[in-house]
Write a structure and sequence with these properties.
Blueprint (H helix, E strand, L loop, with lengths): L1 H7 L7 H5 L2 H20 L3 H24 L5 H14 L2 H4 L8 H18 L15 H14 L7 H21 L2 H21 L4 H25 L9 H19 L1
Helix pairs in contact: 3-4, 8-10, 9-10, 11-12
GO biological process, one term: dTTP catabolic process
Pfam families: MazG (PF03819)
GO molecular function, one term: ATP diphosphatase activity
């Protein structure tokens, strides 16, 4: 794969599209491929997962090839660095530390090692090093976890729920003001607190939203299928009719689950 990528990027004989790409242009594809891996796992589509993992691996090779061309590092360096990191962060497996540990203790030790690594990079603030390029929902979760580690957190879900009520009220006031910047700010605040609620409930907000998306698609498809049986398309229907069909789809799902 490394050789294939080298040939694709060859300035004389490579693919014109591949030659034109740079780190910034490929980064969105890298993110997309990671989500497609997660999607295949969620659907337990193991044949697809094999292919999606290959697509994701290709992204690492692509970035490493561009870095090699720029004299920065190559794929071997990438593999060596992650190998060294895994060994350093698992002294109980690769080192002399034979103390029995729970998964929770290992997580705490892992975070301590990462904190030391951040200190070595002069990342001294609590929130330093949380990547700006992460999807906003995931970054919100990571920021909240970091703050919680130093005690900046609600003790239970009650405080988070109160904050959701407060932010909802502030969003309603912003909507009444018709100030678009204020509306966007308050809407973002509400999304941020909703992510925090997921963390307190032990839920992955991204996974929960993916499940909600899948449910919406499933139920809207049922609405569309029923309309097709009636010889209609959604744009030829009314909101009232589609709402009734949506409720019927919900009831049908509940009946199956019961």
């Amino acid at each position: 794969m490394v050789e294939i990528m080298r040939r694709l990027r060859d300035p004389q004989t490579g693919c014109p599209w591949d030659i034109e790409q740079d780190f910034a242009s490929i980064a969105p594809y890298t993110i997309e491929e990671a989500y497609e891996v997660a999607d295949a796992i969620e659907r337990q589509s193991w044949d697809e997962l094999r292919g999606e993992l290959g697509d994701l691996l290709l992204q690492s090779i692509y970035h490493a090839q561009m870095a090699d061309e720029a004299g920065l590092f190559d794929f071997e360096d990438v593999a060596r660095e992650i190998g060294d990191k895994m060994v350093a962060r698992h002294p109980h497996v690769f080192g002399s530390d034979t103390t029995p540990k729970t998964a929770e203790q290992q997580t705490a030790d892992w975070e301590a090692v990462k904190a030391a690594e951040r200190a070595g990079k002069a990342e001294t603030r609590t929130l330093d090093g949380v990547a700006l390029g992460l999807p906003a929902l995931l970054r919100a979760l990571k920021l909240q976890k970091r703050a919680a580690r130093v005690g900046f957190d609600w003790p239970d879900t009650g405080g988070v729920m109160d904050k959701i009520v407060e932010e909802s009220r502030e969003l309603a006031e912003a909507i009444d003001s018709k100030d678009t910047d204020h509306i966007a700010e308050e809407y973002g605040d509400l999304l941020f607190v909703m992510a925090n609620l997921g963390r307190h409930l032990g839920l992955d907000p991204e996974a929960a939203l993916r499940a909600a998306n899948a449910k919406f698609v499933r139920r809207f498809n049922a609405v569309e299928d029923r309309l097709q049986q009636l010889g209609k398309r959604p744009e030829q229907s009314t909101l009232e009719e589609m709402d009734a069909l949506w409720d019927a789809a919900k009831r049908a799902e509940r009946d199956i689950s019961d």
